[in-house]
Amino acid sequence: MRRDVFQAIADPTRRSIIALIALQSMTPNAIAENFDASRQSISKHLRILTECELVRQEQQGREIFYSLKIEKMKEIDAWLEQYRKIWEIRFNQLENVLSTIKKQTK
Amino acid sequence: MRRDVFQAIADPTRRSIIALIALQSMTPNAIAENFDASRQSISKHLRILTECELVRQEQQGREIFYSLKIEKMKEIDAWLEQYRKIWEIRFNQLENVLSTIKKQTK
DNA sequence: AATTTGCGCAACCGAAAAGTTGCATATATA
DNA sequence: TATATATGCAACTTTTCGGTTGCGCAAATT
Hints:
The first copy, chain A, has five helices and two strands, in the order ααααββα. By secondary structure, chain A is mainly α. In chain A, strands 1-2 form a two-stranded antiparallel ribbon.
């Protein structure tokens, strides 16, 4: 089972779950109430999110609270970083081109 | 076919293709040479990347050059932004807690 | 003009993923 | 203690995905 963060966030339901539990931890039932999907289906998504460590479980009596491991999101951020650099360079190049044109028209 | 950026970057081969063409545009054959995968397989990935507008094609004779549409990557960045905010808040809260502890031990 | 080259497209196949159903288990509650 | 509730897990089905094969077409090359 190739489970990585990128695969985890590929599913729109999982992205919604992430958004839902980003601020406060929730039980599977509470989460499922926000979707058309069945409890089991949500449970499976939660398992996938847990397996790739995007989510943490906390047992409390017979309830299990799920919350987002926000640190793991930084992995995506780190991957994006290289491209952020590129688009900044591109932007600067464009700036230069524009200022050159401006000078020429003067 | 539900094709979005998140689904596109879920596949490791596609992420490699993105990295490869980020700086200069390349033909499918040239791209395929960098992988074990067949030309057709790479071509299919390129189609998916094109469909979700992460990649642009430029015909030049019988060759087609593919290049990254870096702007589209910003969509992922925009999605991450909300979580970036959260982890900054968390970090500041931690700072506060630490400084409170520091004061108490004084 | 015939052949080679670069490429896309459609059909097919096997593996993995998503969803459903039916349990089992542990903790509350009556 | 019997029952209801919260949840996970395993088995099964359906869908999706990645890859291969085979074809067609247009641009280069001979």
